């Protein structure tokens, strides 16, 4: 009886040990987030999504290594490009 809690989505009580983190009836998570937390989670920038190259957990080590190299090369390319654009903007000023 000490582990009982009421699910907010289905309004049923859960007391089973298996249902400590989620509702036994509807499967919803017991963790309740505020609206600002939900917005920050959805707007959070994931390091693996930078550069349009997504690194999946199922990728092999070689594929992850190649993707990291491509991400780094893209970063270097845009850094050099931004320096050249800055030089062009400063030289005509």
Radius of gyration: 24 Å
Q: What is the SS-derived class?
A: mainly alpha
**Averaged pLDDT, please?**
77
Largest sheet: 2 strands, antiparallel
- First and last CA, distance: 75 Å
| Helix-strand sequence | EEHH
Q: Give the beta-strand count.
A: 2
Helix content: 40-55%
What overall form do the CA principal axes indicate? elongated
Low-confidence region ranges = none
What is the percentage of strand-forming residues?
under 5%
Q: Give the spatial strand order of the biggest sheet.
A: 1-2
Count up the helices: 2
Structure description:
It is built from two helices and two strands. The chain has helices at residues 35-43, 61-91; strands at 5-6, 13-14. The protein has a two-stranded antiparallel sheet. Strand 1 (5-6) and strand 2 form a beta hairpin.
Descriptive keywords:
93 residues; mainly alpha; two-stranded antiparallel ribbon
In short:
The protein has about 90 residues and is mainly alpha-helical. It has 2 helices and 2 strands.
Topology:
Elements lengths: L4 E2 L6 E2 L20 H9 L17 H31 L2
Antiparallel strand pairs: 1-2
């Amino acid at each position: 009886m000490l582990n009982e809690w009421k699910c907010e989505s289905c309004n049923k009580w859960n007391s089973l040990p298996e249902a400590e983190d989620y509702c036994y009836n509807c499967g919803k998570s017991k963790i309740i987030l505020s609206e600002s937390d939900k917005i920050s989670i959805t707007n959070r920038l994931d390091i693996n999504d930078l550069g349009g190259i997504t690194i999946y957990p199922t990728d092999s080590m070689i594929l992850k290594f190649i993707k990291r190299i491509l991400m780094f090369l893209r970063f270097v390319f845009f850094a050099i490009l931004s320096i050249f654009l800055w030089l062009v903007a400063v030289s005509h000023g």
